[in-house]
Amino acid sequence: MNGNGATHTISVLVEDRPGVLTRVAGLFAARGFNIDSLAVGPTETVGLSRMTIVVNVETKPLEQVTKQLNKLVNVIKILEHDPGSAVERELMLAKVRAHGDARARIMEIAEVFRVNIVDVTASTLTVEAAGKPAKLEALRELLAEYGIVELSRTGCIALARGERGIKERTLRSAAS
Amino acid sequence: MTKITGAEAVLRALEQEGVEVVFGIPGGASMPLYDPLVDKSPIRHVLCRHEQGAGHAAEGYAWATGKVGVCMATSGPGGTNLVTPIADAKMDSVPIVAITGQVPTPVVGNDAFQEADITGITMPITKHNFLVKDPADIVETVREAFHIASTGRPGPVLIDLPKDVLINEVAYQWPDKVSLPGYKPTIKGNNRQVSEAVKLILKAKQPVLYVGGGVIKANAHRELFRLATAGRLPVVTTLMARGAFPDSHELCLGMPGMHGNYTAVTAIQQADLLVALGSRFDDRVTGKLAAFAPHAKVVHVDVDPAEIGKNRVADVPIVGDCRDVIAKMADALEKRQQETGGVPDRTAWLTQLDAWKTAHPYRYDQQPDGPLKPQYCVERLRDHADADTIVVAGVGQHQMYASQYWRFEHPRHWINSGGLGTMGFAVPAAMGAKVGQPDKRVVAIDGDGCFQMTAQELATSATERIPFVTAILNNGYLGMVRQWQELFFDERYSGVWLDPNVPDYVKLAEAYGAVGLRVESPQEVDAAIDKAYSITDRSVVIDFRVDPTEMVFPMVPSGASNDDIILGPEAVQPTTDPAEAPIA
Lengths: 176, 584
Hints:
The complex is a heterodimer. Chain A is α+β, with helices and mostly antiparallel strands. Chain A folds into two domains: 6-84 and 161-175, Alpha-Beta Plaits (2-Layer Sandwich), CATH 3.30.70.260; 87-157, ACT-like. Chain A, domain 2 (Alpha-Beta Plaits, 2-Layer Sandwich), CATH 3.30.70.1150. In chain A, 32% of the residues lie in helices and 39% in strands. In chain A, strand 2 (35-42) and strand 3 form a beta hairpin. In chain A, 28% of the residues are buried. The mean pLDDT of chain A is 91. Chain B has three domains: 3-171, 3-Layer(aba) Sandwich (Rossmann fold); 191-359, 3-Layer(aba) Sandwich (Rossmann fold), CATH 3.40.50.1220; 374-553, 3-Layer(aba) Sandwich (Rossmann fold), CATH 3.40.50. Helix content of chain B is 37%, strand content 16%. Chain B has 23 helices and 20 strands. Chain B starts with a strand and ends in a 39-residue tail after the last strand. The mean pLDDT of chain B is 96. The A-B interface holds A 14-15, 18-19, 22-23, 26, 30, 63-64, 67-68, 70-76, 173-176 and B 119-120, 123-124, 127-128, 131, 148, 180-183, 304-306, 309-310.
C-alpha cells in the first residue's frame, strides 16, 4: 500500500462470462493501479457474479476508473462502499511454525481471537480466521512472531448495510 | 428449419445489418467465410493488400457514410495487423466491426499455426470484443457487435470466429432485440442541466462553442448551426470536427489547439464560457491544462460520462447524445429569447474576434521563383475542387496544412487520424471513403513518410477500380519530427531524412496502375491539379516537391500555455536546454 491514497472497497456486479475478470483487472493495470485484493463469486442471481475490489488510490483517479468500469459491456453495476456503512469480511489461512512452547501460545492466541485451528502436524498449526481485514491483520502480526510458513487470504468481500446496496430490481432487469 | 454453415450465418447477419462491403484479406482460418462470398452473399469484398489497409479502409468508409465499416482478417498475423486501425478507431470513436478467423476451438490456446489471442490483444483497444465458441451464438453476436459499435460513443468491436465455428451448421434465426443488460448509453440529456447551460449561455459575454468530433458522430451539425446562430455563439471546430460548422460562416473561428489559428486559440483563452460539445479537452487542444481557458465556466456535453470531468471540471456536466442535447439547448435558447426579446448583445466580443481574424490569419510566403510551399499546394487543391470533395489526411505537417487551409463546409468531408496519430492512414482511408461515397471526389493529402507506410493499397484501388487522388507533399523528411528537432533539439536532425527521390513516386504510381504526376515549381501546380481532377477512371498520385524547411505555424509548444502561441518562424525562441525541450 502506498501512503498518499486511501483504501477504497468497490463491489462490481458483472455478467459471468469468460474474460470479464481480465477486462476489469486490465482497466486498473492500464492506469498503473495495484489492486490490493479482488474476490469473485456467484450472486443470488444466476449468470451474475460479484467482484469485491480493494484498491489504494486517490479519489479522483479512482473516479475515472469506475467510470471506465461502468462502460464495460459486461459490467452491470458498481457500488463504492462508504467506510463504516458496509459489512466487510475476509477469510485467512495461516500455517505457523509450532514447536515446543510455541504450540500452546499459538493456540491461546487462536482462542482469544475466536478463530479455529484446522490442521495440526508435529511441526505446524494451520489457523483459519474470518473477520474484518483489520482483525486478520492484527492476528497475522501476532502469528508472524512464531514464523508463518504459508499464508493465504481470500481478499475482502463486502455488502452495504441495510437497504443500501445493489438492488434486487437491478438484478432482475439484468437477468431478464 | 434448414441449417446453414456458421460462415453463411455470419454473412447473412452482416447483410441484415445493412452491410454492403467488407475490406479484408483471407487466410487459413477465415477461408470458410470466403466460400459463400462466391455465390451465396451479395456483399462486396474488397481485397486489400495489407490488413492495416483493410482496417483503415473500413474506418474511412465509416467516417464518410456514418455507417459501420467492416474489415476481415484471418487468425494470427491477420488479426495482429488489424491492431493499429482498431486502436485508431478506438481513439477517434469510429464505428467499425473487425471480423477475424481463429484456429479451431479444440486447439485454441495450443500455439497452433497462425494462432494469436486476438481478443486478449485487442481488449484495451476495442469498445468490446467477442470470442464465439458456438455457431448458435453467431447471429446474436453480430447483432450485438453492430449495436455496440454504432450506439453511444461509437467505437471498434472485434468478433473472433474459430474455424470450426464457421464450418459447423446452425439454424439461422434473427434475434428480435439486442439484450445487453450492462450496456445502456445515456442518450437524452437531463433537462434541468440543459436549462442551467442555457442560463450560462444567456449570461455570457465572451462565449465559445468548443466543438469536437462527437458532433459529427451524432449527426448534430444542423442542431449546432441552430444553436450557434440563435445564440450568436462563435464556434471553434477541433481537428476531429472540421466541417461540423461551415468555415465560411462569420461565427466560425476554425481550428483551436497546438496548430490552430490565433483567433480560435485566443478566443478560448479569453472566453468566459466554454460550451464543450462532443469534445474531450485533449492535450493537443488544451496545451498546458492548468492555463487553458482560465476565465471560462465550462458546460460539457458528451455521450461518454467518463469524458466529463476527466481533464477539466465541468460547471454544468451533461451526459447525452450531442444531437439531443444541442437541439434542446437551441430550443430553450430560442424560447427564452422570444420571451426576453432578441439575442444577447455580443457585438463587442464578435468585433474583437473579427479584429483578430484580420490581424492573424494563417500565413505563408510563396515566392513565384522560390521553393514550392506545401500550403500553396493545399490551397490550389482546394480551389480547384468541387464543394463536396472529401479530404483525407495522414499524420504530420501535411495533415495540419490540410486542416488549416482547406475550407470545410459540411461534416464527413474531412477524414483523418486524430487521437492515435496513425501515419499511413490516408491512402487506405481515402479508398474506404470512395467506396462509401462513389459519387464524390476523394483527395488524400499525404506526406511522403506516411504514404510509404500503406502505399500498397494503390494496387487495391487499381484492381478494385476505386479511383482517388493522392497529393504527396513530398519534402523528403519526416517533416513534423524534423520541425521539432529544428525548434526544440537545437537543429540536431536525427533519423528524419527520407530522400525525396526514393522511391520515384511517379514510377511507383505507374507501377501500381495509377497515374503519376510530378510538380516541382509553383508554376506547374495548377496544370497538374487540373489533370489529376480530370482523371476519374483510376487513381492519381501527384508528387509535390515542397520546401523541406517549411514549418507549421502557429504553434503552441507541447506543454506550454496557449497564451504562448508562436505565430510564425520569426517568433521562435530557440530552445537549447534539453530539459526544457518538449518530448511529446
